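#struct-help
A.M.: can someone run this one for me? Single chain, 169 residues.
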Amino acid sequence: MYSLNVPVPTRVAALASDIAREIPAARARVRGEHTLNIKRLSNGDGPAYNRLETQAREVIAGQPPFAVRIDGIDYFPDAIIGTTPVLYLSVESPELVALHQRLAEVFEPIEGIEGDGYTPHVTISRGGPQDAVERLTEREIEPIEWVVDELIFWDATRSQPVSSVSLPA
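D.P.: on it. Structure tokens below:
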């Protein structure tokens, strides 16, 4: 599967890793896997990667840099895809949501997690005891803000970036 993502600053990845250590039974993201998904481009059954990237670049053409803010810890009790619960850093960014919506007009949204169900987030971990996850959502964190000036095309199968685009695109 390929997606268009925001690379996260080191301090966001470090925060996610620190929090994940508090739930040893969960599967934490490993170094280099922390990203902020904007939109999945395919589930692996669609067009070749180069066609997906071309289509996405057409949608993001002219996209200026935009602000993102990590402002809390939350969780999905029942993930539509993968192990649950999913503990995450919550993200506030109207521009990110608007970009997601533009991409969802071209790339079919995955029911329940994209389109109207899109919740921007940085995954901390999957699985683990529900009560431990719930306790962590009560913790306050120092907000982290940054300006997104680069997007990456992500290969989920290999857990690595394929290419990137600087903003404004």
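A.M.: thanks! The chain has one domain: 2-157.
D.P.: also worth noting: Residues 2-157 form a domain with the Cyclic Phosphodiesterase; Chain: A, fold (CATH 3.90.1140.10).
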